[in-house]
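pinging the channel bc i need a second pair of eyes. not urgent but kinda urgent?? the chain im working w is below, pasted from the shared doc
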Amino acid sequence: MDLAAVVAAGQIGGHAMSVSERDGGRQMSPLRRRMTRDMELAGLTSGTRKEYVRAVVRIVRHCGGKRPELITEEEVYRYILWLRDERGVAKGTFQVQVYGLKFFFYRTLDRNWALFSKKRSGSRSRSVFAGRCPGRNAAA
């Protein structure tokens, strides 16, 4: 199944997930329902909500179908670097992906990770938005 079909079917990590409860009567997982509710409460437009869901779908696929709530901070960090350095996505696409992941992990899952804070320590003191990371080719 290609990414567009996965997004259309709303599958994240093997769980049936619709874009909204009004979307053709499909059943929504509790995690997807919570993310959707959080995005609606935040006042995000339907287009932004769809892109944020796509960001989660893409990282789940990148992590081999791992359930999104089990993805670690390090996996998210490596995925973001991969998007920027290996995949070379456009800046606008990159930013939407990062913001979608930040929303999901920080807001929906309440993960207070250094990756998504303005203050970082150690080797992550520079933002992934900045220049290339010297260790970006390290084994995943």
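so The beta strands are 11-12, 15-16. and DSSP finds five helices and two strands in the chain. — does that match what u expected or am i reading it wrong
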